[in-house]
Amino acid sequence: MRLSAPSMYANYIKDFPQLKDIPYIGKIKSGEFDTERFINMKVSAQLTLPTKFF
User: Fold this and answer.
1) What's the pTM value of the predicted model, to 2 decimals?
2) Distance of CA 21 to the CA centre of its chain
3) What burial class does residue 19 get, using C-beta atoms within 10 Å of its C-beta: 0-12 exposed, 13-18 middle, 19+ buried?
4) What is the predicted pLDDT for the residue at 25?
5) CA angle at 20 for the pair 16 and 21, rounded to the nearest 5°
6) pLDDT tens for each residue of the chain, 54 residues long
7) Is the Cβ–Cβ distance between 38 and 23 less than 8 Å?
8) On the CB side of 25, how many CA atoms lie within 13 Å of its CA?
9) Cα dist. 42→10, 25, 35, 39, 49 in Å?
10) Computed from CA positions of residues 24, 11, 8, 52, in that sequence, does the dihedral angle turn out positive or negative?
11) Residue 32 and residue 36: Cα distance in Å, rounded?
């Protein structure tokens, strides 16, 4: 959504600023996804659910 719908992404960022912390890993189809870079990322596996709408 960050690249395909930037205005919609900007609206979500207003309500959920933590979305900016999600790393961009590249597109698989275009070949920019780097498996080694992905494996070496030091990101904690956390799932944050937007409770604003529940």
Assistant:
1) 0.51
2) 7
3) middle
4) 77
5) 110
6) 777 788 998 998 998 888 888 877 777 778 888 888 878 877 665 655 555 554
7) no
8) 13
9) 26, 13, 14, 8, 21
10) positive
11) 12
